Structures are given as C-alpha cells and as structure tokens.
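Hey, I'm writing a tutorial for new members on how sequence and structure tokens pair up, and I'd like a real worked example in the thread rather than a made-up one. If someone can provide the structure for the chain below, I'll link this post from the tutorial.
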Amino acid sequence: MIRELMEENKRLKAGLGGGFGNDPEAAKKLKEAEENIRRNQAMMDEMNKSWEQRLKESENRDAE
C-alpha cells in the first residue's frame, strides 16, 4: 500500500509540473491534486509509525 501511495504521489506531483496559466479548471484540479498528495503523505506517515509510537499517542490521548 505504501508503494501505491508513493507512486500516486509521484504521478500527482508530475501533474503539477505543467503550467496551467489562468485556467480555473486546471487550478481546481491542482488544488485537488495537492490535497490528495497531503492526504497520501499523512497516511504514509501514519503507516510508518511503530506500534510503540501509536501506543504512546493513544495513552497520551487517554490521559487528556
């Protein structure tokens, strides 16, 4: 799954490389692609956490 997310991030970043000029539809797609990249990166970061980190974060939330 991580590999798939990394490939999607790469594909989305490649799509950002082309100039869009003043095209509002392209600007909307750019914004959506950036949001997808951000979401995918957050998912990858969460998957890369060790179970000890997750346990500690859970304990911290429970203590609050």
